[in-house]
């Protein structure tokens, strides 16, 4: 359908654009929170903002390959790692906010929360996965790890599932917003039906 | 502004939560489930005319109109800590009168063992009542209840104002309950009916999630919410992200001296 192929220079400009949006977006929210301008409870607000940003960026990352296939835009794939790393970046901020500002460095409370609260357990598990994916995201390591790299990075689907449940379990009563995320994730997973099933059968053989 | 005959301000050492935060950080799902939505969606809420009916197991049921809410009883200022079940808290100067005065005026019968409260049901004015998107998926009207001895405790307040003025709509105008030793969701807003009953009345959050929210809902640092700890809380005051505002939660929100007796011989883990 489309044969548009951006030059390397255009790709670099687009990547700078992504960096600018993500960083300015984050800095702007922190500026508001630090100056007590992010609602009445800036701590809750910044935790929510970084958590939702991590989830949104991750879903955006998972949208890239279906879009690239559907519209035959292979160059889109060159943004997948960048967005994935920003999902991890926001997840890091989310966790740091929780420990620094919500729990205010009460580490025993942190351990207790991770063990006792299922939604926090899931959130931490997802964070560990994203951490593993982030530190193995270099091209050189990818070549070195070969097939194992792909197996490891397929864990991104598990992380996405855990994060959506983490969000679902964290809200007090409203199920519509988390429900919409469940639906979006199911669509993204359904688009990869074949790949996920074959990976599953390969493992169980 | 409202005229007040006495105040407990000399007994309270907690720093007040700034008025701007008290009126912009609200759980009032009738106007939206996000904390900022009630302030945004409630400003056109019409509270005059109003009618508050006191009925049920009483000798002399009666109804108060809008003016009477402010004139039948002397108003006093009560500075109370408010502890939300979500583990944040505020300190708020309420204006109002003791719930016991209202109940005594109706002369409860010997069958009056519980007090049931009901919020206005008016989906045209309260968009959360007609929209699942706004209203958080709870059944309306919002209902709450107290045991009669809890209701008669001198801490139980019917509030008609805060910070010297009538209540803003997002805080439960024109009249709301304040029960400072219980989680905030017990303190029902915009009340139209108070009914004395022999049976324990249903309560909104208990209906929605009985494993998470009990009938008593006393502030208790030893009984965690299934999804988060209740051992500590963050006090909403002035200041941004770096304010060190995490404090230990006190049993009965620090009002044990006045209310612990109400729960003698009760297992508070079971009766959460």
From TrEMBL, chain A:
Sorted UniProt keywords: Cell membrane, Electron transport, Flavoprotein, FMN, Heme, Iron, Membrane, Metal-binding, Transmembrane, Transmembrane helix, Transport
Single annotated GO MF: FMN binding
Main location class: membrane
Gene Ontology CC: plasma membrane
Free-text comment on the cofactor: Binds 1 FMN per subunit. Binds 1 heme b (iron(II)-protoporphyrin IX) group per subunit.
InterPro entries in the cross-refs: Fe3_Rdtase_TM_dom, MsrQ-like
Subcellular location: Cell membrane; Membrane
A GO BP annotation: protein repair
Membrane association type: Multi-pass membrane protein
Spans through the membrane: 12-33, 45-70, 82-100, 120-139, 151-169, 175-194
Cofactor(s) the protein requires to work: FMN; heme b
Ferric oxidoreductase domain boundaries: 51-164
One protein family per Pfam: Ferric_reduct
Similarity comment: Belongs to the MsrQ family.
PANTHER family, alphabetized: PROTEIN-METHIONINE-SULFOXIDE REDUCTASE HEME-BINDING SUBUNIT MSRQ
Assembly and binders: Heterodimer of a catalytic subunit (MsrP) and a heme-binding subunit (MsrQ).
Function: Part of the MsrPQ system that repairs oxidized periplasmic proteins containing methionine sulfoxide residues (Met-O), using respiratory chain electrons. Thus protects these proteins from oxidative-stress damage caused by reactive species of oxygen and chlorine generated by the host defense mechanisms. MsrPQ is essential for the maintenance of envelope integrity under bleach stress, rescuing a wide series of structurally unrelated periplasmic proteins from methionine oxidation.
Name the record gives this protein: Protein-methionine-sulfoxide reductase heme-binding subunit MsrQ
